[in-house]
Amino acid sequence: MKKLDLFHDYGTIDKQIIIEYAHSLGVHFPMTYIELLSKHNGLYPVQAYVKFVNFQGEEDIKCLSFFGYGYERIEVYDAESLALFQNSLGESDAIELSQPDEYSYQNVITIGNTAEGDYICFDYRENPTSSEPSIACMHHDQYVKDEQGNPKMAISKIANNFEEFIEMLHE
């Protein structure tokens, strides 16, 4: 996997915390993701830009950072504390992960965000048991209709897996 240069992170975190959090969501995160985030919790890489074709068929570029696990204000690293951190309204926190809201999707798990407020996600919709889900951008302010005609945040596939995604990142 390509080595990323560090702009900012929150230091290291035990791999088991990340693994247990994934299991609490009923999924398996890629080992390359677990290795990276355990060394650089809440990673904001120098190579923070990714270019891809969005759901409208247009070239898009996003600047991103990864969500962290735990925080100095949380002393107990269990699934409930992590969910509270991931779901709080701070500057680098995620939307509801374990139970999607009406505009997000089952089996799409946020792992980061973009400067525009969009979400970088593991997309398990094709194979919920995979340990190598595709990577997607869930657009927070663009909507499409689902099969029942309900509005959902638009999703753009970025990469086939996490390692491919990391290779796409650039300055």
Please, could you describe this protein's structure?
- The protein has a six-stranded antiparallel beta sheet with strand order 3-4-5-6-7-8. A two-stranded antiparallel sheet has the order 1-2.
- The protein contains four helices and eight strands.
- It is α+β, with helices and mostly antiparallel strands.
- Residues 72-78 and 85-99 have low confidence and may be disordered.
- Strand 7 and strand 8 form a beta hairpin.
- The protein has one domain (6-168): SMI1/KNR4-like.
Number of helical segments?
4
Strand order of the largest sheet: 3-4-5-6-7-8
Q: Summarize the biggest pleated sheet.
A: 6 strands, antiparallel
What average pLDDT do the residues reach?
85
Strand content: 25-35%
Integer count of domains: 1
CATH architecture: 3-Layer(aba) Sandwich
Structural class: alpha+beta
Order of helices and strands: EHHEEEHEEEEH
Total strands: the figure is: 8
Helix proportion of residues, in percent? 10-25%
What is the name of the CATH class? Answer: Alpha Beta
The value of Rg in angstroms is: 15 Å
- Enumerate the spans where pLDDT stays under 50 for 5 or more consecutive residues: 72-78, 85-99
CATH fold category name: SMI1/KNR4-like
**What form results from the Cα inertia axes?**
globular
N- to C-terminal separation? 17 Å
